[in-house]
Amino acid sequence: MSAKILALDTATEACSVALMVGDDVYSRSEVAPRDHTKKILPMVDDVLHEAGLTLQDLDALAFGRGPGSFTGVRIGIGIAQGLAFGANLPMIGISTLAALAQGAYREQGLTRVACAIDARMSEVYWARFERQSNGTWFELDAECVIAPALLVDKLAKEDADQTWATAGTGWAAYQESLSTFPFILQDSGLLYPQAQDMVVLAQQEWQQGRTLPVEETSPIYLRDTVAWKKLPGRE
C-alpha cells in the first residue's frame, strides 16, 4: 500500500514541491535562486489544496537532503522539519543526486545516469547510478565532492563502450574537463533535481521502513568543514 507523501526541495536553484497520493502526483516547480523562502510554502499549500488534503492527512514528509548550496539545503530541511513537527510526521531525506537520476528516467527512460552538480570552488558534487529491475537505483560511485580533473583521472580506466547519461549543472560548468571521460556521454538535458522525483524515491524508502523522526534528520553537505567555517565566529 502506497503512502501519502509530501516532498520539497530547495537545495539548488530550483524550488519544488510534490505530493504523491496513490498513483497521482501533484507538483509545483520554479527556478528561483533567491526566492526559495517566498515560494516554497505557497507551493505546499497549492498541492495540498489540489489534492484536497491537509498535512495531518499525510503519512510522511520528504525533503532534498543535499548535496547542494549550503543556504538552500538549510532552508529546505528547516521548513520540512517545521512542517513535519507541526503535523507529527516522520521524515525521509532524499539525495539530490539520486533525484537527478530518477528525473532522467522519468523524462527519457534513461537507466545509467552520471550526476554532477556545480559545487563552486572548482568542484562538483558527483555520483553515478544504475536503475535496477525493481525500480531502485544502485549507487555505482558514492556521493562525493571532487575536482573535475581529479574525477576524470579516477575514472580513466572505465569501459569506453559504456554510455552514461549526464544530468546536473556541473556538466556545463566544467564542460572542458568532464568531456574527456573515456566513456560515451549522452546529455539528458536535466539540470535540477525535482520534488516529483524525490517523492517517488521517498515512496521506496517508506516501503522499506526507512523514516526518521524530526529530531534525527540532518542535511548532507559533503563539504562539512567549509560549512562549519562559514558559521559566524568559526575559523
UniProtKB/TrEMBL annotation:
Keywords assigned: Cytoplasm, tRNA processing
Can you quote a single GO CC term? cytosol
Q: InterPro entries, from UniProt?
A: ATPase_NBD (IPR043129), Gcp-like_dom (IPR000905), T6A_TsaB (IPR022496)
Tagged with keyword tRNA processing? yes
First-listed, main subcellular location of the protein, grouped into a coarse class: cytoplasm
Location of the Gcp-like domain: 30-229
Question: GO annotations under biological process?
Answer: tRNA threonylcarbamoyladenosine modification
The record's subcellular locations are: Cytoplasm
Q: Which domain of life is it from?
A: Bacteria
Describe the family membership recorded for this protein in Swiss-Prot or TrEMBL.
Belongs to the KAE1 / TsaD family. TsaB subfamily.
| Protein name per the record | tRNA threonylcarbamoyladenosine biosynthesis protein TsaB
Q: Which organism is it from?
A: Vibrio cincinnatiensis DSM 19608
